[in-house]
From TrEMBL:
Protein's UniProt name: B box-type domain-containing protein
Signal sequence region: none
Coiled coil among keywords: yes
Coiled-coil segments: 124-212
Organism (species): Mytilus edulis (Blue mussel)
Alphabetical keyword list: Coiled coil
């Protein structure tokens, strides 16, 4: 007998190797076409049910008989976690031997079977998330390559402009030198031509005198000419002995050493570097393994949490609906009334503003000098490049077939934007291909709900019932915090590195922190700290700083320990 269902068991017992077409689980054998016919008419096997092979080969090859005793498995040893037959003596002393039929009874509906199904789905989903993360990295590398190419072109333009100026300066210097030397020669030529004219006149007069003057006149004239000719000869001799007769030449001598140094310095100005940082990718765990991890340190973190005011400044803005701390320490705010972004320096001074970018509600930093800005309506989410002060792209959240979808609060994790879509609940949109999926189906939100992401969990606010809710990637609600005596009209929300959640209470004029399990809370800031309708906040996990912004004017930056 063989339990390899890929082969015909009957033929195998006759030392013939044939592939099977069907299997009989009662005989624990595979059957070829000929043996199947005999099997179906034999008295002992007439009523056996045979099935065509649909199981994977690796499952068909799993042995159901004891390899040592060639007997069917009838027992299961939970101590050694293995099946065994009745003859197996190495398990006689085991106290955890059970009838294998009891173990396999209703196995398809068991928790273990369901858990394996979930784990398999988790693995597939996590692989997809990792693939998406790496594809996003590829896309960001290509975008960065294009940005650096543009920067190199700008450097080239600056160098060319500088060389053009240098060329102009050198040519101007050349012209000045040429004109100076030419003027010296021209001055000498003018003098020589004048002397030439005088000598020519002497020659003409001497010819006339020779023909018509008397001897005395010729004699006296000769004496005068001798004096003039002598002075002319002295003039010519002085010129020939002076530098005036030197052949003047202009040349350009290029010192190669400074040029080589300039070339080397230009190359040193631009250096390509590769850097990496830990990915924010979080792996989903559908099993409640996290429940086994003690949250005592989180509770202690809340009890001992200390905020230190580092800056308090006036933004001059009204109806601020979004804020974020940038990696370079600057801060960006979205003004819903004016539809603009305002970028402030780390010291609290206005750096610049970006206007005319359509409706602006919440915002989140997504890397590569870009922030994603929700509209607070059904308009697209805009991706704005803070460095270049321009809109990079738009991400549509509504389609003709899908209908109108609003987008209020927004968060970012692993290349995906998570946004609040009111009655549609939380929705996830890929920054790569724009694909949209809904997180859960029954988690309806209110207008102006905000969301934060931490590993495999999402936290969102619903101001109409003064609640803060935590759910997983499937939308399953893990906990809800709601206490109007503590928190009224919760809006902005953000999470720290331990999963603690910071929430701004607009009508309770406070900021509270809730533990990651939702069981504990603590008020951190209140009206006494200057909070008047605080609407948004952002916790920067890289610097442990908390930015809190009132509906208008006041912004507060705290260090958190």
């Amino acid at each position: 007998m063989t339990s390899n269902w890929s082969l015909c068991g009957v033929c195998y017992n006759h030392h013939i190797i044939k592939p099977s077409e069907v299997r009989c689980s009662e005989c624990n054998n595979g059957l070829c076409r000929e043996c199947k016919k005999n099997h179906s008419v034999s008295k002992d096997t007439l009523h056996h049910t045979v099935k065509y092979k649909k199981l994977p080969a690796e499952v068909l090859q799993i042995a159901q008989d004891c390899k040592i005793h060639n007997e069917r498995y009838e027992l299961f040893c939970s101590e050694h976690d293995c099946p065994c037959c009745k003859i197996c003596v190495n398990h006689n002393d085991c106290e955890s031997l059970f009838d294998i039929n009891e173990y396999t009874k209703n196995v398809k509906t068991s928790d273990a079977f369901h858990e394996i199904e979930q784990t398999l789905q988790e693995v597939v989903d996590n692989i997809k998330r990792i693939i998406a993360n790496r594809e996003y990295n590829l896309e960001s590398l290509k975008n960065k390559e294009n940005e650096i190419k543009d920067e190199i072109k700008q450097i080239k333009t600056k160098i060319n402009n500088h060389l053009d100026k240098l060329q102009g300066h050198l040519i101007l210097n050349l012209i000045e030198i040429e004109q100076l030397e030419s003027s010296k020669i021209q001055k000498l030529l003018t003098t020589l031509k004048k002397q030439e004219e005088e000598i020519t006149e002497y020659q003409e007069n001497f010819t006339v005198i020779k023909q018509h003057a008397s001897e005395l006149q010729i004699f006296l004239a000769m004496k005068n000419l001798e004096k003039d000719i002598a002075s002319k000869e002295q003039f010519i001799e002085s010129i020939t002995k002076s530098d005036s007769m030197n052949h003047v030449n202009i040349s350009c001598q290029v010192n190669q050493l400074p040029l080589q140094q300039i070339t080397a310095s230009v190359l040193r100005c631009v250096e390509m570097k590769v850097s990496s940082c830990t990915s924010a990718l979080s792996i989903q765990k559908q099993k409640d393994k996290q429940a086994q991890i003690s949250l005592a340190h989180v509770t202690n973190k809340i009890d001992s949490m200390n905020l230190t005011l580092q800056n308090h400044f006036n933004t001059g803005l009204i109806n601020v609906r979004g804020c974020s701390l940038l990696p370079d320490g600057r801060m960006v705010f979205s003004c819903f009334t004016k539809n603009k972004l305002s970028v402030f320096k780390s010291v609290g001074q206005l750096d610049f503003e970006i206007k005319n970018i359509a409706d602006t509600f919440d915002l989140v930093y997504i890397g590569n000098d870009c922030v994603a800005v929700s509209s607070g309506q059904s308009f697209p989410i805009n991706v704005i490049n803070i460095k270049k002060n321009r809109r990079e792209k738009t991400i549509k959240v509504s389609t003709f077939s899908d209908g109108v979808k609003d987008n209020d609060g927004v968060a970012y994790i692993d290349g995906n934007l998570i946004y609040c879509s009111r009655e549609e609940g939380l929705r996830m949109i890929s920054c790569f291909d724009g694909s949209v999926s809904t997180i859960g189906s029954n988690n309806a939100l209110s207008y102006a709900s905000y969301v934060a992401a931490f590993k495999s969990r999402f936290f969102y606010t619903i101001h109409r019932d003064d609640s803060v809710t935590c759910c997983d990637y499937q939308g399953k609600i893990l906990w809800t915090f709601s206490d109007a005596n503590v928190l009224k009209t919760p809006l902005g929300i953000s999470a720290d590195n331990n999963g603690n959640v910071f929430v701004a209470g607009a009508n309770s004029d406070n900021v509270i922190v809730i533990s990651g399990d939702g069981k504990r809370y603590r008020e951190l800031l209140s009206h006494e700290d200057g909070l008047i309708k605080p609407q948004v906040l952002h916790y920067d996990t890289s610097t442990d700083k908390l930015l809190v912004v009132n509906e208008k004017n006041d912004a507060f930056l705290y260090g958190v320990k």
